[in-house]
Design goal:
GO molecular function, one term: transmembrane transporter activity
Distance between the termini: 40 Å
Number of strands: 0
Structural class: mainly alpha
Pfam families: EamA
Protein name: WAT1-related protein
Domain EamA: 21-158, 177-317
Membrane topology: Multi-pass membrane protein
Largest sheet: none
Order of helices and strands: HHHHHHHHHHHHH
């Protein structure tokens, strides 16, 4: 029996590692697909609305079946306000900034920027006293230094690619603006992640339901925004036909949602640090696909900036792992699931 149990654990580990690698490849493929949509003239707001609606429609029945017993008996105004903010920030604002950033940079850079989020989440959570912060602790110092290295890498990636004469994106004059959009998107994502974790730990322990509700709300908000701005609901270009719209729904809604659901399951099995380690794989896949399909390349200086970001990311993750192994949980984290804000699944 022990051997059978050990065999199951080995199989589970193989499934988790293989699945997380596949997840990053799928997400990288979607980023490259979105870059192609932007080049065809797709309206970012329309893309967000279609993807959000598809995610909610496909996964809501699953959320009802799996999490109905976890729903609160009474919905407070505080919970409604939290869901609205998560929908606006995590769906509309975050994705709009990401799509604008992808349009002006490359899929590889867009995939690299979210690696800033663990450090930014630490800073934001520490400000709200939801994360351990002891300036005399070497692990806190390591997290602060790792966050700084990530930021330096992001700045270097932006400036060094901009100064590369062989860079088509840089020649267009919008590279730094695009990187600014991406950094803004990561800041919004980090704020939303902290709010999402607080909501999950504050009486709404149903992550899939939350993602479905906020995605549906975000799709509605985004569609309404396009009507206000453009005067109509429109994909933005006659080149975006029904096949491409179906691709947005499948890749952006169903497959990306399945990736999020799988990552959430992995969080419960292995914890957030293990899952975060696979983040850079998406950047590598995006760079390979961009070079093979779109003929886009990165300068050596920009690659050096990405390496700095990865170094800072792993330094933050190393510090968090050792900190949680050696220090008692923060009092305000006792009620939270596993005491780590990064347990919360990221929004689609």
């Amino acid at each position: 029996m022990p051997q059978q149990g050990g065999g199951r654990l080995v199989v589970e580990d193989v499934v988790i590692v293989g699945g997380l690698l596949l997840v990053q490849c799928v997400l990288a493929g979607y980023v490259v697909f979105v870059d192609q949509l932007m080049s065809l003239g797709a309206h970012p707001l329309a893309v967000i609305a279609v993807a959000g609606a598809a995610f909610a429609a496909f996964f809501l029945p699953l959320a009802v079946a799996l999490e109905r017993k976890r729903w609160p008996s009474k919905v407070s105004w505080t919970l409604v306000a939290q869901l609205v903010l998560i929908a606006l920030g995590g769906t509309t604002v975050f994705q709009e900034l990401m799509l604008l950033g992808i349009k002006k940079t490359t899929p590889a850079v867009a995939s690299a920027m979210p690696n800033l989020s663990p450090g930014l989440i630490f800073v934001i959570a520490a400000c709200f006293r939801l994360e351990k912060f002891d300036k005399g602790c070497k692990y806190t110092q390591a997290k602060m230094f790792g966050t700084l290295v990530c930021l330096v890498g992001a700045i270097a990636m932006s400036l060094l690619q901009q100064t590369s004469p062989s860079s088509p994106a840089a020649a267009g004059g919008g590279w730094i603006l695009g990187c600014s959009y991406l950094v803004g998107a990561v800041v919004v994502l980090s704020l939303v992640t902290v709010l999402q974790a607080a909501t999950l730990g504050g009486g709404f322990p149903a992550p899939l339901t939350m993602c479905c509700v906020t995605s549906a709300m975000g799709a509605a908000f985004t569609a309404a925004l396009q009507v206000v701005v453009e005067g109509k609901l429109d994909m933005g270009s006659p080149k975006i036909d029904a096949t491409l719209v179906a691709g947005i729904a499948i890749l952006g809604g169903v497959l990306s949602g399945a990736c999020i659901a799988f990552q959430t399951w992995c969080l419960g099995k292995k914890g957030p640090l293990f899952v975060s380690v696979f983040g850079p794989v998406q950047t590598v896949c995006s760079a390979i696909l961009s070079a093979a399909i779109l003929r886009q390349t990165l300068s050596r200086g920009s690659l050096a900036g990405i390496l700095l970001m990865f170094t800072g990311l792993y330094l933050v993750l190393w510090a968090k792992r050792n900190e949680y192994e050696t220090l008692p949980p923060h009092p305000q984290q006792q009620h939270a699931h596993a005491g780590d804000l990064e347990k919360a699944p990221l929004l689609s």
